[in-house]
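Comment thread on ticket #2218

A.B. wrote:
> Attaching the input chain for the structure job we discussed in standup.
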Amino acid sequence: MLMAIILFSLFIMICSELIVYQKDVKPIKQAMEQMNPSLIYLQTAYTTAQKFPLLAFRRTLIVHYLRATRPNELLLIIFIYWEKLNSGTLVLLD
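C.D. wrote:
> Ran it. Output below, let me know if you need it in another format.
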């Protein structure tokens, strides 16, 4: 059961990382794919490239915290409720 929780969390984390990354890279990709990009596209791409380290930090923080811990917590509660996991087995130190 614990392996299923970890794999589910990993799947959610990878999917959400890809979605947010595509959104962050979209302005840069649009400017690079055009033969003669307009000044607005270039300015947007340049601004996005300048903010990219901050976007990467935000993406990592949000993805690894909210999308990795929240599904785990939810699945743990569900499995304990269904009695697939005993809450006593989750205590590491007695």
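A.B. wrote:
> Thanks. Noting for the ticket: The longest helix spans residues 39-81.
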